[in-house]
Amino acid sequence: MFFTQSCSKTEYEQLKRPYADIQAFTIAGYGLVDSIDAVIAGDSITIYWDDAVPLPAEISPSISLSAGATIEPQANVSVAFSRNTVYTVTAENGDKREYRLIPKPNREIPRLQGLLINAFPWLSRSELTLRGEYFMAAPLDQYKVYMQRLRDGVEFDLEIDPSTITPHQITAKLPPFTMEQDTGMHRVWVDLGGVRTESLELDMYQPTLKNEQYTIAYPSGTQSVRPGQTITIQHEITDDSDGAAARYYQGNNILHIRLGIRPSGSTGALEYHEIGIESITESTITFKIPDNFSQYVDYDIISSQVTYKAYTMGVMWGSYTTSITVSSGLPQRAYIKIASAE
Questions:
Q1: d(Cα 263, Cα 196) in Å, to the nearest integer?
Q2: Cβ pair 239, 301 in contact under 8 A
Q3: Which domain of life is it from (predicted)?
Q4: Would the pTM of this model clear 0.90, i.e. be above it?
Q5: Number of other residues whose CB lies within 10 A of the CB of residue 46
């Protein structure tokens, strides 16, 4: 007894391969380049072409496909070298997939090489100058400059005027200084249509105060102080940034009072003493003349300063000082004398 087995046409079609991939796409090269391989990603066939060499009107590519697949237009057939050319790959099972040809000029990628200044206080400059090369290798309206604070990742874009870009320099505007900005290390980079340059680091210090932005003075008519005496000075800080700059010079950011003294009538070097703070309010600082200043009776206080913490990366690294004004009720250039205790 013999048995026979056959497959229906429908069963046979289910065995057909479903692959519709372009595996390789190569065209003739130019100069010393024999051939150029396309980059196949998704549904795109991208061919990078040297800007210095004119684009050919047509190409006749050699093409490798998935097993059993066919393509239209066929391999080695002339087609326009443009985005208008679309290839259709048909799998053995009839599935279709389209690929678009994309000629792409092989421009130099912009490189960021340095900053004109890489450390400065906020508000001391309004612009940031970036230096590099090939900054005009692409349409200028595609350029963006970004800045990011390293400590917490806060990122913001910097405004640029495309008409001011040169092949080797980009000038970007720093953002307004608000409570969102802070001190510390930042990084800066250029983005060109999603292509990002390497980044460079930039250290931003706290803003420095201008003379007209603070009032620090002894009580009116103060002519002398005594060991053990408590002094309350006026201390008012303002700024043009809604308190964003003043915050570094208030409250716990005040370290101490620094007094520079010397014997009355002397022109010698000053002897400096750091005086601890008793209390601080929004507009005053109270400190006490040390009891051991009895040894400095008849000395003059030549220099009086308020010392503040200086920050970068959120960590105190030093200090800033501002002078305390001798009351206008005293004669010009008059000094406060250290008197004997009562």
A1: 63
A2: no
A3: Bacteria
A4: no
A5: 15
